Each structure stands twice: as structure tokens, then as C-alpha cells.
DNA sequence: CACTGGCCTGAAAGCGCTCTCACGCTGCCG
DNA sequence: CGGCAGCGTGAGAGCGCTTTCAGGCCAGTG
């Protein structure tokens, strides 16, 4: 392969000349070689190798109007993203699946509403074939913005009511998972079951509350405390719960990190888990569960799978005759029984 | 703005026609308007607004040979990336600074060597103007691969010796920071100072060891244990150290997460921090430090700043007449004194 | 043996933009 | 009053690729 810089990269023209064919034929070979006789295919392939030819992407998208790239929009204004592996794990699933589909990942990080203009402009600019947005919050006007940009998009997580026009989404079966968790506590004979919920601006938190209510019809409202998905907030919520309702014998915590905080407080107060209080978390985050003592019983969700699935759905959306929007997908959860309940 | 889909987006031609000027003039206005008289500038601007014109990126890069995009290569085969906020924080710095420079972020996640071909092909494909690679490991052949691709690149973190041809890098002053940490322990009158190091395949870990040795000439080799930057491994290392050298009265731990593990073991063994054993960490990760008890004294490094700096360096590199490579940059650290030492 | 049809191949037309170059106009100087 | 800068504008080439369309070739058929 000859020495080359960005400036003197060989063009398809050069490949064609070297192979003794027309540019059209060279192009056909580079794009799979359908309808070209074998001898010519071989010649072109050889020329490509000898010259180290790589297609010019810009020229190609100019005519095909496709870019082989997907925007991944992370709407996470808070720093939580750093302490919660959820984010990175989902991103990894997305990255892997995009790679498998030969798509590039353009990362758009939205910190606050001042970024919305930039995002809208970028999407409208037609740089990407599609988009995936995740970590949305309830009051987020992003889904609307995205809808207006007309870029095929899949959301990670059920959007709030603000979303307006329906974009397809992938989500964990938060409600079903929560039901399973609470039912498990009930099956252990627990009578006073509290719930430490996530922040009310996230549908995942709301859905888990709904699941809790599905099982425990009309529970004491004092048994429900809202945290912010951090260990600290879980500890605080647990402390408050114990202060108000000392008789609690079971807690369903909306994520593992908060459950860790709850376990700490229970330990500090001399309550035994699970004998005195049984605890069930949500997520089954390996790093967190490993750190917990006793080992945390929790609702497992496949976060990386969620990321992969969002890409699969998008790919389907892209290949579909315009207009038809595929249905959203809900991923099942399963309860992982360990020591805490 | 008229209703439009990807297919019928207005072109510069349309803008020019509407403004009653030539395409060339319209182009000049869209690109800043230098050398065009005000009345025409206004007319074109108006036409752009009325039509909702957005330049076609592919067409533009086809002629300018620039893409306004930078590849960010994360070489992190391990899952550590999920538990260590280091990664996300650096990425955020990069993202912010790229945005400030009107550059897009194309994320390339390298899981193992089987991805190298894909990365090389992508870089060689000339899709991006430059690249930033971070989280490199000692035996990584990635720097070499990147060098061969001829894409201007900045490394996050000093590369190992494998790197071969010098690519500019940004890094924290790991060695200086380590010196500062150990000197602080010495100044507290500590005589038997251990070091829990990071994995030997990362230069940051090696540099911190070097800093330790800078201050403690020829220390007992048994005082040095290697961890893997996880809390778990820090705990294990601490336990082993105490088993072998019960007289330890100071520990410099190569990152905060491992320090957390070390603190836990010290507490479990009934040793008081800092009275019996003084502990200094490295990173000053907010989430980790907040969780530590007692509050961790640590060497602060500005991880987000590191990310931003890598972009700044790359931008400089891109604007520079080819050939001249700007010097690498080392960011200073500072010791944050809290309760643990 | 002429004709038809199918299969390959190449010529050429763009995709939407930038940028060079030439041209026209204005104002100033000799 | 002719000539000459100098500025602003437009015509047009061309970036590298895909894709249509016409034409050439060959085999099979009447």
C-alpha cells in the first residue's frame, strides 16, 4: 500500500484505471459486486488492495443521502451519571449493537435547555440517519424537539406525558418488576411493606411505585418515601421511614444504590436483615450488589440489553417504509433471590 | 418555515434564487458573509430563515475536506469503566470542549484487539478531522495503529513504551502528586509508609509508584502492593499489608476507590485513622470522598479539565501547519487535606 | 441465419457545496 | 477624460461517488 496522506488518497477513478474498468464497475464491486462478472470483480478487488483505497464517505452520503451514523442523546443534567453505572452500561449496549450494524455513534450530551438549540440544529442538519435518546426526565421538552426534527428516533425509557407525539421506546418492565418484588415480600409474610421510590420526574420511578400499589392496595401513605437514586438519599429515606413507622418489616427500594444506603441504616439501628426487615432492590447492578451486606435480593433488569434493543428497534425503524412506526418494546425483569429477602 | 422532510430540504441554490443572488454569494453569506455588501447579506439571511435552510454537511466536507468531527476512542476492555467515575467525567470534559469548538464527538469503544481493524479502517476512512484516545493500557497497540492512520491525535494519559512514535498527550502530574502525598505523610511524622498501587499496565499507576519512590528512597519492598483501582482490591491489599507489616502508620493509596476499601479494612481491624494509620488517596472523586469515613485526604486531579485540555491540544494540532506536533501537557495536582491524614 | 432478450459494462448526469477566476462597476489619479 | 486599481459578484469547474440508461455482446430460438 503506497504511502499516503489525507490529501492524496486514491479515488475510485484511480482504482478503475488500475483495474482497467470504468468507475461504475469499480463502484459496483466496492459495494458488493452484484452483477459484475468474477474476473472483473477480482481485478477491482486487487486494485483496491494495491492502492489502499477507502471510499470517501462524504461523497457517498452526498448521493445516497445516508450517513451510517446515529446520534445518541444523553439528557443528563445532573452529576448522577457519574456515580450510576446505569448510564455507562446502557451506552455500552448501544455502542456494541451499533457496531454490529456498521453504524457510527455520534454522542450528543445535553446538559440543560440551553443545549436544545444546538441539538435541534444538529438533528435538522441531517448528519445522522437516526437518533437514540435516553435518560429523559419528566419535564423534558427534548422528545418534542426530536419529533419536530423528523429524524427517526427511539427513546430509552418511557417518556413522560410531555412527549406528545408518540416516539417508539424501549423500557424495562418497571411496573411488573416492582410487583414481583413486593409480592415476594408478601410471600415472606411481611405485613408492613414500605417503598423507597426514585425521583418523581422519572417514569421508571413512577412505574415502580405503580407496581408497588398494584400489590398493596391502598397502603399507608407514610410507607412511601421519595429518594433520588443515590445511596445517601436511600439512607435518609430509610431513617425517616423507621422514625415514623417502627413496625416496618419489609422494604422495596427502587434501585440498588438506595438499597445499599437503606441496609446501612438498618444495620446502624441494630435491625437484622432479613429477620427483622426484608429488603428488595431493583437493577441488580453487579458492583453494588457485591458491596452489599447481606447480599441484596433484587429485581434484575438487563441494562445493556436495553441499550442493544434500542438500536435494534431503530434499525428496524430505518429500514421501514416511512410512516409506520414499530411498537415500543418492554423488557422483562426477574427477581434474583439472595440473602436480604 | 415550510414543512420539509429529509428528501426535500432546500439547497443553497434555492436560497440564492429566493434572495436574487448567485449561489456563490449565498455561500459566502452562509459562511460568515465576508466580502459581501450588507443589503445582499440581509437578503440572503432572510431567505435562509424563510426556507429553513441548513447546509448539507456531506456536500460541504466533500469540497472542504473537513468534517467538524473528532473520534473519541475509549480503550477500556474491562468493566471497571462502570464503577469508576473517572471515565464519564473525562468524557464529559471532552464533550463540553468539543461542543465549544463546534466539533462533533464520534465515540469509538474498543473492547479488545478484535476491534482494532474496525478502528483503523474508520480512522483511515477520513471521517474525522482528529482523534482523542484515552484509557490506554501499557501493552496497547492502539497508539501505533493510530499513528499509522495519519489522523491527528491526542492521547489522554501518557502512553506506555509500546507507543513508539510520539503522539502528544495530556496527563495529570501523577508523579508529582504522589510525591506530594508521601511528603505529607512524612511531614506528619509517619515512618512506615506503604503504597497501594494501581495495575502495572497503566502508566498513571507506574508514575505514582515512581513518585512514592522519589520521596522514600529504597523502602521495604513489602510495603508496596498492587491493586486494580477497585474498592475490593484496595481492601485486599490493605489486609495483606497489615498482615505482613503490622507497624504501618501511613498509606498512600493510588486512587480514592481503593482508599475506601483500605479505610474499611483499617476500621474492621480496629485501627484508628489517622491516629494509628494515616491514609492519603488520589483523584478527589467527589462521590467517593463523600462516602468515606473519616473524610479522605487525597491528591486532587482535575479529570474533567484533563478531558477539556485534550480537546484544546487537538484543536491546536489541527490548526497547525502539518508536521509540527505541539508538546504534551501535564496538569498540576494539589493535595486536599481532610481528616484521614 | 436473422432476431430477440438478457446480462454486463461504460458514459454521463448529477448529489450540494466551495472557491477560483473573470468581469463589471465605481472612484480616483494623471 | 482616459486609464487603472480595487472591490463585489456571478459563472462554472470540480470535490468523489452512485445510479440511470443506452449499447454491446452472446446465447437461444423460430
UniProtKB/TrEMBL annotation, chains A, B:
Top-level taxon in the UniProt lineage: Bacteria
InterPro entries, alphabetized: HTH_LacI (IPR000843), LacI/GalR-like_sensor (IPR046335), Lambda_DNA-bd_dom_sf (IPR010982), Peripla_BP_I (IPR028082)
Keywords for the protein's UniProt record, in alphabetical order: DNA-binding, Transcription, Transcription regulation
TM stretches of this protein: none
SMART domains per record: HTH_LACI
Family annotation (Pfam families): LacI, Peripla_BP_3
PANTHER family according to UniProt: HTH-TYPE TRANSCRIPTIONAL REGULATOR GALS (PTHR30146:SF109), LACI-RELATED TRANSCRIPTIONAL REPRESSOR (PTHR30146)
Name the record gives this protein: LacI family DNA-binding transcriptional regulator
Species annotation: Streptomyces prasinosporus
Amino acid at each position: 500500500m503506497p504511502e499516503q496522506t489525507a490529501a492524496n488518497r486514491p479515488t475510485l477513478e484511480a482504482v478503475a484505471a488500475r483495474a482497467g474498468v470504468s468507475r461504475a464497475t469499480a463502484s459496483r464491486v466496492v459495494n458488493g459486486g452484484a452483477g459484475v462478472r468474477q474476473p472483473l470483480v477480482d481485478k477491482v478487488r486487487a486494485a483496491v488492495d494495491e492502492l489502499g483505497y477507502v471510499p470517501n464517505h462524504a461523497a457517498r452520503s452526498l448521493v445516497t443521502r445516508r450517513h451510517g451514523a446515529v446520534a445518541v442523546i444523553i439528557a443528563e443534567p445532573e452529576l448522577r451519571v457519574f456515580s450510576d453505572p446505569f448510564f455507562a452500561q446502557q451506552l455500552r449496549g448501544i455502542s456494541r449493537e451499533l457496531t454490529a450494524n456498521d453504524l457510527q455513534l455520534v454522542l450528543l450530551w445535553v446538559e440543560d435547555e440551553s443545549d436544545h438549540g444546538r441539538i435541534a440544529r444538529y438533528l435538522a442538519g441531517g448528519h445522522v440517519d437516526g437518533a437514540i435518546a435516553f435518560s429523559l426526565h419528566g419535564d423534558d421538552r427534548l422528545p418534542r424537539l426530536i419529533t419536530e426534527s423528523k429524524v427517526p428516533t427511539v427513546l430509552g425509557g418511557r417518556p413522560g406525558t410531555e412527549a406528545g407525539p408518540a416516539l417508539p421506546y424501549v423500557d424495562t418492565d418497571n411496573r411488573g418488576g416492582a410487583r414481583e418484588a413486593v409480592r415476594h415480600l408478601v410471600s415472606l409474610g411481611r405485613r408492613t411493606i414500605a417503598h423507597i421510590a426514585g425521583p418523581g420526574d422519572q417514569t421508571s420511578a413512577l412505574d415502580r411505585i405503580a407496581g408497588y400499589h398494584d400489590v398493596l392496595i391502598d397502603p399507608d401513605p407514610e410507607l412511601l418515601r421519595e429518594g433520588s437514586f443515590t445511596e445517601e438519599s436511600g439512607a435518609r429515606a430509610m431513617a425517616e421511614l423507621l422514625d415514623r413507622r417502627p413496625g416496618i418489616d419489609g422494604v422495596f427500594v427502587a434501585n440498588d444504590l438506595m438499597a445499599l444506603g437503606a441496609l446501612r441504616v438498618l444495620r446502624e439501628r441494630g435491625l437484622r436483615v432479613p429477620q427483622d426487615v426484608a429488603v428488595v432492590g431493583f437493577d441488580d447492578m453487579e458492583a453494588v450488589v457485591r458491596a452489599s451486606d447481606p447480599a441484596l435480593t433484587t429485581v434484575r433488569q438487563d441494562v445493556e440489553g436495553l441499550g442493544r434493543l434500542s438500536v435494534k428497534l431503530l434499525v428496524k425503524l430505518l429500514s421501514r417504509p416511512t410512516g409506520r412506526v414499530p411498537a415500543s418494546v418492554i423488557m422483562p425483569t426477574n427477581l434474583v433471590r439472595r440473602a436480604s429477602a
